[in-house]
């Protein structure tokens, strides 16, 4: 994966980390506003960061590797200025 934009000057934290700009472009070009998306392989959390950057998209996801899950939380909290919240179940968020 080629690194460009803001990610070019940063050390890669995940072996398949994508540039936020690339995923932001994808959201803007192919996804409607207020879209709800599920990313089953969050990796470094780029899809969540890009969705928040575009404004009206929500991403839910999971990551099996705890070290990457910790990385996702750190990246998101650093970029958003918010604090991540642990939920009890998907049903509690989606209203099932």
Automatic annotation (TrEMBL):
InterPro entries named in the record: DNA_methylase_N4/N6, RM_Methyltransferase, SAM-dependent_MTases_sf
Recorded superkingdom: Bacteria
DNA methylase N-4/N-6 domain boundaries: 10-72
Gene3D superfamilies documented for this protein: Vaccinia Virus protein VP39
Keyword Cytoplasm: no
GO MF annotation list: DNA binding; N-methyltransferase activity
Protein name, entry field: DNA methylase N-4/N-6 domain-containing protein
């Amino acid at each position: 994966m080629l690194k460009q934009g803001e990610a070019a000057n940063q050390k890669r934290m995940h072996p398949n980390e994508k540039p936020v700009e690339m995923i932001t472009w994808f959201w803007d070009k192919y996804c409607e506003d207020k879209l709800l998306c599920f990313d089953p392989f969050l990796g470094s959390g780029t899809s969540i960061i890009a969705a928040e950057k575009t404004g009206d998209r929500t991403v839910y996801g999971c990551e099996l590797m705890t070290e990457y899950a910790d990385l996702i939380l750190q990246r998101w909290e650093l970029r958003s200025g918010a604090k991540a919240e642990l939920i009890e179940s998907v049903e509690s968020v989606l209203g099932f």
